[in-house]
């Protein structure tokens, strides 16, 4: 009898306590950490192995992308001509819960896990634990040739068994934040539609608009969650700093040199300035991406830092008459409901940009482009899988240009393939596509601190920074550095 996945361990199958047949390094320590995780949340230590069905490729993916993954999985299943069937299993909504469920299954030697949708921050942890297979060299070479540098970096890691960094997952889709602004407000109050290029310029513009009686909020993700980590990391890397040494994850780099301290201090000063500026969003310490979008659509904000999804939201909500400062968009309501052609959508997009436009992520150093923290999803092959070669074949199909075009246009997740940024359908759906592509390049993308203990680092950093701005930047430099080192040393909070 095949035991099907239920999201909890099957009581009839004993757990082995052995993660996989690769005998990964430092397993005793990792298993101890896994037990601590399970105890902390009141859950069983590990999921039990559930077995597998030959030819059925089980993919566990995030809830937000499940529908679109089902679409591409069905297409790949059909294209395989009976070679395999991809079965989609939906992980919990919250990223921490997704990570925990996967960790429990893999630690329990669950051979029913073949493919996993991995948050870009999990590569180091899962590779170091021996839970994901390195991508075969021929496929890895192809991916490295066709994939933008930022997403590619998120899938690379060097374990103690590796002589160099290896590709441990296949980049599937990515994301990057942009500056969104009201060009009509800029023109009315400042006499220009040129967007600010730096945080200091944006703060200055917002204050001038406020003094003239206009809406001046700068929308950011200031709540105590991953969004705050993204904000801090983007500003920090744009200032020339980093949380950990990219070549040595055991070393924090927030205050280890005078240069790094200066970068950290500047980043903290910017966060505080935004959070405490005259006329700031009064709920910024509880704000997430949705709050940022709604603050802009309500007409209270002049600027917003957010992901590309806010453009489609503004377009559709304004067309529905739900954006008070943009009632003129209702003229396009019928068109947008009728599957417009690319040229028609281009006309609508150009009109949206008269009231809601986009620009590159604001920099810190004048004349130096910012580095924006990337998001996204990678696909990994579980080391517990009994059909790894077939799983890699399915994973390759799920990340083809055709699949990534679906993720982008139907799912709202920008592609990782360089070639798609010239695709006419993509460009119609993403008028900001050129900026996205530029910010996903190796020299413009910021990955979150590459570390097997990233989750602990993020948890402690966001807890220390909350409530955002209610601290002295000078003393916060050393406090943050101390917390990050505690996370690295295993002395901090284990999420």
Verbal overview:
This protein is α/β, with parallel strands linked by helices. The protein has two domains: 43-175 and 375-446, D-Maltodextrin-Binding Protein, domain 2, CATH 3.40.190; 176-372, Periplasmic binding protein-like II (D-Maltodextrin-Binding Protein, domain 2). 43% of the residues lie in helices and 13% in strands. The strands form four sheets. Strands 1, 2, 3, 6, 13 and 14 form a six-stranded mixed beta sheet that branches. Helix 9 (226-238) crosses helix 10 and helix 19 (454-465) packs antiparallel against helix 20 (473-488). The longest helix is centred in the middle third of the chain and has 19 residues, at 258-276. 52% of the residues are buried.
In short, what is this structure?
With 495 residues, the protein is α/β, with parallel strands linked by helices.
Biggest β-sheet description: 6 strands, mixed
| Poorly predicted tracts of residues | 1-49
* Alpha-beta content class: alpha/beta
CATH architecture annotation of the largest domain: 3-Layer(aba) Sandwich
Distance between the termini: 36 Å
Task: Please tell me the overall pLDDT.
Answer: 90
Assign the CATH topology of the largest domain. Answer: D-Maltodextrin-Binding Protein, domain 2
Number of strands: 14
The CATH homologous superfamily of the largest domain is termed Periplasmic binding protein-like II
Give the domain tally: 2
CATH class of the largest domain, named Alpha Beta
User: What is the helical fraction, as a range of percent?
Assistant: 40-55%
